[in-house]
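thread: overnight batch results

M.L. [08:02]
morning all. the overnight job finished for the chain we discussed friday. pasting input first so we're all looking at the same thing
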Amino acid sequence: MRGIEKYANLHEVIPNLMPVLVEAIQSEFLEIKKINRECEKFIASCGRFPELKNAEYVIFSQHIKKNEHKNEIFVFIDKEGATIRHLTGHEMELYGLLDSCSNLHLSDEYLESQKHCNDDDCRR
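M.L. [08:03]
and the structure it wrote out:
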């Protein structure tokens, strides 16, 4: 892996996550969020997609424009990082479904790099 890793403990918290997803998350190409499993929207989605009952996190792009969300692919994973299901924005919206990953800790290097960034588009 090149560059600064965003999360210091990603490997420990989600040990079976595919390396390509780890690298994409660490480089901020993709974002990971915890699913609010008590959300009515999530519970209803489990009715349509029963395998989602085992999902803990969803991985998605934070860079896709709002008008393109229908074409986005979401990767739902379990607490260990195994892929549960892929869904598109046509099948499901994530709005109101996500929580922060309070169990993932930002690395010291990442935090230090952000101190020098005054711009929302700042990249390492």
